[in-house]
Design a protein that fits this description.
Length: 215
């Protein structure tokens, strides 16, 4: 019999909303709020309550009509879905200002997400220890990826160099990439890549805020 996948198949959009719900629910829990209605969560997250109810329906009977949802129960279910169970070893490419901030932070609130190696192409950085990491030349990448069993890569190289950096990462077997640059890159179909563009995130937040809270 085919082995069942542990994680339910949910869309990328739902996954993103789950992590938004989870953040909100943890805040409610910290304030000792024990239950919440979908309409209240809709106000907090700005996700429509019909969408919330549909998202929640993927995960069985989570709520009771008239009662709403138990905050702790939701946290347990959503953390179970989103949290990775095994340690993921991550490589960072581009030890500039943003890259160094990530090395310093290193997802310290999540034990299973660990940046374990860093790469750059600047001769002034290669061979230096920055934030506790030896900066490797890209030519060392194949060897380090195998040795460290790298499964995820984060790129913080400038947009115009991102394609060449990602090509090397992909060539060395990594299929999950977080790219801190907005321009779409060419990657094979089996490679999952997410783009984080802090400027456009901020602009869209401000646009939304000005719409709902006009000055
Ligand atoms: P700094 O001034 O310290 O370089 P920065 O954040 O201003 O920091 P950026 O120009 O954003 O630097 O570049 C980020 C990092 O990416 C730099 O360390 C740069 O050397 C590195 N980098 C650029 N191109 C590549 C590449 N193709 N492969 C790996 N690293 C690269």
């Amino acid at each position: 019999m085919e082995k069942m996948k542990e994680k339910p198949a949910i869309s990328k959009a739902t996954t993103k909303r789950l992590s938004l719900y989870l953040r909100c629910l943890k805040e409610l829990n910290a304030k000792n709020i024990t239950r919440i209605k979908s309409s209240e969560l809709a106000n907090l997250t700005q996700v429509g309550s019909a969408t919330i109810r549909r998202d929640f329906s993927h995960f069985g009977e989570l709520g009771r009509s008239g009662y709403g949802y138990n905050v702790k129960d939701l946290i347990t279910v959503f953390s179970g879905i989103l949290d990775t169970k095994e340690e993921k070893k991550i490589a960072l490419i581009g030890v500039g200002n943003l890259g160094q901030a990530l090395l310093k932070n290193n997802f310290r609130r999540n034990d299973n997400l660990n940046i374990v190696c860093a790469f750059d192409n600047d001769p002034n950085k290669i061979g230096q220890i920055i934030d506790g990491f030896l900066v490797h030349d890209l030519s060392e990448l194949p060897e380090v990826f195998v040795k460290e069993n790298i499964q995820v890569a984060i790129s913080t190289v400038p947009s115009r160099y991102a394609q060449e950096a990602i090509d090397i990462v992909v060539k060395n077997g990594v299929t999950a990439i977080l790219n801190f640059a907005p321009d779409p890159l060419n990657v094979p179909e089996n490679v999952n890549i997410r783009y984080i563009d802090l400027t456009s995130e901020l602009q869209s937040l401000i646009y939304f805020d000005e719409m709902v809270n006009p000055s």
